[in-house]
Write a structure and sequence with these properties.
- This protein is α/β, with parallel strands linked by helices.
- It is built from 3 helices and 9 strands; from the N terminus they run βαβαβββαββββ.
- The chain has one domain: Rossmann fold, CATH 3.40.50.
- It has a 6-stranded mixed β-sheet, sandwiched between helices.
- Strand 2, helix 2 and strand 3 form a beta-alpha-beta unit.
- The longest helix is centred in the N-terminal third of the chain and has 18 residues.
- The radius of gyration is 16 Å and the shape is globular.
- The mean pLDDT is 93.
- Bound molecules: inosinic acid (IMP) and magnesium ion.
- Magnesium ion binds next to strand 5.
Length: 175
């Protein structure tokens, strides 16, 4: 069977939800500047779309952390491949992630970033698979809770493919 993609969340639904999140974040950060931290590569599409809908001043930085190889199963190993360029001292940090699965990546990352003395630190994820949680991480903003299925699109990949899909889908026909 050839690889096909079944749509789980349509482009219109993703866009509408990001609009709502942008509005909520703008209200919550009223009078402040929000420092968005994009977790590469998966978080990049979501962060750009979200940033465009935030009306308070925004600054951005990028970090690359990997906990997966090219497959669909967590290796349990988390490594910083690219660190942030700027200090977090005194900033109101909002981490922007594509998906929280086991929670291992973010649990580890937030421990490291907390030590850099931000004024506040919150977590925003486009997708959450709460059933899969191994490490307890507090998620402040969630786009969609989804079932335990491997998803692609809107930044998420399967073996580096499908990140550019403008919707969230499930890969089918993989052996
Ligand atoms: P965690 O450490 O298990 O929470 O894994 C988080 C990372 O695993 C995410 O940032 C993704 O890069 C990747 N990941 C987890 N689930 C999926 C999925 O369904 N599709 C694509 N990547 C995923
Ligand atoms: Mg990721």
């Amino acid at each position: 069977m050839a690889e096909t993609i079944r749509v789980l969340v349509s482009e219109a639904d993703v866009d509408a939800r990001i609009e709502e999140l942008g509005r909520k974040i703008s209200e919550d950060y009223a009078g402040k500047q929000v420092h968005l931290i994009c977790i590469l590569k998966g978080g990049v599409f979501f962060m750009c779309e979200l940033a465009k809908r935030i009306t308070v001043p925004v600054s951005m930085d990028f970090m690359s952390v990997s906990s997966y190889g090219d497959g669909t199963v967590s290796s349990g190993i988390v490594k910083i491949a690219k660190d942030l360029d700027e200090s977090l001292e005194g900033k109101d940090v909002l981490i922007v992630e594509d998906i929280i699965d086991s929670g291992r990546t973010l649990y580890y990352l937030m421990e490291i970033l907390e030590k850099r003395n931000p004024n506040s630190m919150r977590l925003c994820t486009l997708l959450d698979k709460p059933e899969r949680r191994v490490k307890d991480v507090k998620v402040d903003y969630v786009g969609f809770n989804i079932p335990d299925e491997f998803v692609v699109g809107y930044g998420l990949d399967y073996a580096q493919k499908y990140r550019n899909l403008p919707y969230i889908g499930v890969v089918e026909g993989v052996e």
